Amino acid sequence: MTQNGALRPLHPVKNDLTDFRLGLSPDDGQWWSALLTLEEAARGISIDEFVQSLPPGLMEHVIVPVAYTLGDRSVRHPRNFLTVIAHQSALHELNRANAFPNVVDVDLGTHVDEEHLDFNAEPIDTTFNFVAVPPDSVVMVVIDDGIGIAHNLLRDKRTSTRVLQADFFAVKPDPEAKNATYGRRLDKAQIDALMEEYHINGILDEVGFYKATGQIDFASKTFDAVSLNRSHGTHVAAMAAGYPMGKIDTDDLTKQGVKNRPIVCAALPAAVTQDVTGQSLLPSLALALQSISNLTRRLVLGDTKDLAPVILNFSYGNTSGPHDGTDGTSELLEFYGTIAQDQKTWMALPVGNDNLSQGHAVVPLGKSKKPKTLTMVMLPDDRTATQVEFWMPFGLDEERRSRISIAVSSPDGETTELTAIGAANSKWICDSNGCAIGRLSFKFKPAPTERGMFLLCLNPTHSLSSDAALAPSGRWQITMKTKQKGKKLAGEIHAWIRRDESLPGYAPHGRQSFFVGPDYKRFGEYGLPITTDPNLDASLIRRSGTISGFACGETPIVIAGMNHKASQPADYSATALAPVPQNGGHAPMPRNPDVATISDESYVLRGTISAGTYSGSFARMNGTSVAAPRVARFAGDHIAEAHVPARTFLYKYLGAPKHVSPRIGAGVLNVQVPWYTGE
Amino acid sequence: MFFPSGFPQNGYNGYNGYNGYNGYNGYNGYNGYNGYNGYGVPDDGVPVQALLTNRDGIVGAELEFPQHIVSNVQNDPENLKRLSPGVRAQILDFALKSEIEMTFDKGKASLWRRGPLTGKKPKTAYHSLISMKAPEEKQLIRQLRFLYGYANIRQDRAPEIISQVQAPMPFYATIGFLDPARTPYTLEFLGAALRFTVYAEMQLKYALAVKRPIEFSPQVQPMIQTPTHGSLPSGHSTESFLTARLLLHVLRSSNAPQYKPAGDGDDHWGEMLMRLASRIATNRTVAGVHFPVDSVAGAILGLTLANLVTSLSTGKHVWTSASFDGTAFNDEDDFDWHKLYDAKSDKQAKLLKNGKKTWATAERCEPLGAAQPVLAWLWNKAVTEWDDFDSSSKSGV
Lengths: 679, 397
Description:
The complex is a heterodimer of chains A (about 675) and B (about 400). Chain A is an alpha+beta fold.
């Protein structure tokens, strides 16, 4: 698709969403971030081997960031992950279905400003020096956005940070450092030096400090939430690892209640955070994990060779993906969670906030020949694309898949129909003038996912550009059709509308589309919202299955949110998938949240308190993304003593019931976070 | 608000949301017979007719005129205490405003301060107080990038920006313990200085005639009404830095030890006051009505005027002769007050350069003669309000 709606031939591609998004952007030599999934099942493939396989003409358009150490580049993995910074033309080439067979997927990130790139950065040596941390240390890893690393709750002394390393991607590089291709990487010594420099008359000039780190740069297009009074990353980081500063004249901070919680963090580009669809996340997430792991796998406890335990908090969520742990985010977390074999690594993720967002629907296959129709409302003034994924059951063979088709009718009455034939195919969705306003595609995702997926991509409903091809707002009808002949067609199709709303503090461009239907009851007695699907619910629209698509992996612990005063799950706290009928094979099982903890004080007092952006300030934020770091904090206090995986430990700690709840998992974890600044 | 009007932004009262500070309105009581309430004396207002009939009832036959009336001392500040603040304001305004003069020559606007008057028909010499040159349009166009960047945080700053459309004294009252009941003379002193500052800054704005950001791009779209006066120097920056420095001078001149930087120690009060001033100035860029360079020029002007006011009020304090050349300012730079002033030493930067070009200077100058009597009277009253005392300092009890 092109932005002005002109049709172009659709060639087979590896990643249809990448192709769709590249098509929306004019090719003017712009750099992009992209995650390449490399595969060579038999002998594995290394990054070096991939790079050497590129023709010279393509090489100059692809940059491998220096976060990939010389050692990492030479290691073969059957399935390997590489974030590159590349020109649009190169990504088109890599995404072609029949080109570069070792590249099995190309996930597009965001535009990368050339001023954020350091072309002179140098890869670090493969020789890894171990770095000693105090013997009782637990390393707290935070990946987020807008992380106010200078906040007093993240320092141990006035000009001494507990942050051992911080990555900031969408910032201008430090030309002297040459240690990051994209943005900046600061270590503790650099952060402390800046703190010293900006500590004037006994008070840290935090705006000056953040300008020096590159996080605040009002003259550039860089936006970072640390320029706001509240920032998600600061709130989350302090909730997970915030402790009062020690007194200046005392070295033994543990005597003052300060725990040894060195912090390693990465702030994702604001553009990634702002794009709540999650479609652009993977490249910067992979780069963050790579850079973080370069340090964490070198941290040893005291004078031993024991690697310091790590707690990773990633308070992001999303509605897309197969929700079976085979999504890209889960795969990355598993890959990097085990990169250091002997290092205890626990991860905390939020269950998501989409319980009542009407973004999930379930269409049973096989019970009736009658087509099932979903109605999706697209709002006007939506300046971002709308995407819906329709996931088929696990293990359907090609013949049975080919009996499933999907018809999409616009509010104007134009209908486009696509059948799940072959491994991949797609069609333009056009308006009555023949102008392309969307695309309907099908792709079969091989093992371990082993599921077919229809993807509906629709243009924005509003644009400031006069020649933009717009999708009409209103009610879109999406009809599933099946042919019941031959082998039995059973199971369910699960539909998820990708998140598309605007985040507080960010430009309000997105408008969330949602399903509606006469059988979906929103409110119950006394006008309260209904937070669990009623029994015998005839509605196709479901609360169960609204769990974040990132939160279905095997390793992470998944955190639900509680309304403290009401002693109930927060209304928005997402619900796990109901057990999904499988079609043979070894389908991954759906995941529940593991535990719940406070995310709202009460219905009136929303949110919980943690650090505001600037030292001495506190802020209130809600959502399961602030519940997750509370559990991460708890995990930090227990990981050293635990000799089992995180989930096992938590379930045992809570005396878990036999059947965990789809809303709060094994139970409610009460984690006290006493806030005092200690100054 | 207690502060006398006269601020150009007063036309936009509708933007003012800081109703919590309406307590300052108690001072409206001075304005007539209705003012006794301010002192706790019961008073529901007295109709004039009642005063007439009351006199008729009690006045009696005409008495001899009194013989022993002492004449008022003429032109003496002791009389000031008998005057209402509104009347005193006129005296103070004359004292301050007659101290300066402005010239404009080849793009350079200069404020001059008057030297001591000599002779029956007064003669004097003028000394350079501050000179300013505006940046060129191409520099301002480059500074527009800051306007776009700062616009991203408008929602975050909106309550502050709207509350600061008028003189934002309540913000200073959160740092120094300003209160109409506790520090009326300090407030009156700051008010006089602010009126003087507006008088001076408006001359410079008028002379330099720098266009506002809204005139450069239809995408600036300020979140508040753009004032009609020129962009540079920023009035808010001038006033906020004047207030911060002047209040710091008052605090340090009192005998309360906490306000003085101790030896090698830090100066938290000065730093915090300047941080506040900087935030107020920056908020005007966030709002879309000023370039960062406007705030730079405003801060230099405000700091310079503050020193002048203190020098005129004490006759002992140094004053500053400063300059700002906008054409030499690096248009890539944001506003950073730390480059201009050090709170602990209370000194402005002597020389600021962009490559080989000098864009700001500041020279400390010895006082020119004795203190202005009316200003000294108010200064001393103000400083006394901050004095600490303990039981040993009280006698005869």
